[in-house]
Amino acid sequence: MSVVRLSEYAREEGTYGVELTFTDEDGDALTPNALEWRLSTTDGTVVNSRSGVAILPTASTVTVVLSGDDLEILSTQDNRLRRLTIVGTFDSSLGSNLPLHAECEFNICDLVGIT
Hints:
The chain is mainly beta. It has a single domain (4-109), classed as Macroglobulin (MG2) domain (Immunoglobulin-like), CATH 2.60.40. It contains no helices and 8 strands. It has strands at 4-5, 10-11, 15-21, 34-41, 53-54, 61-67, 81-92, 95-109. The strands form 2 sheets. Strands 1, 2, 4, 5, 7 and 8 form a 6-stranded mixed β-sheet that branches. Strands 3-6 form a two-stranded antiparallel ribbon. 14% of the residues are buried. The mean pLDDT is 94.
């Protein structure tokens, strides 16, 4: 499975919501048992200490809200791409406590007036 590339840009140091929807192997809504997220650069560097952040409560659709330092451009060499990684577990007709892994990538729009 490839990384999902989001088309909407986040604005530097602004607020950006990423809506996540979970379905089972039949396409039916699925509420995971546990979920957490991690925000990193494309080389794997964790951004703003955002690793192992719990998503509570879990639901079939949740929104991860990123803001401020989550959306900071780290240096002039920063490629402005971020990866949001989701890990968790779920139950379905395939079994119990199955691993759930997903990742999406988005760009940060460099605003001239933000330093």
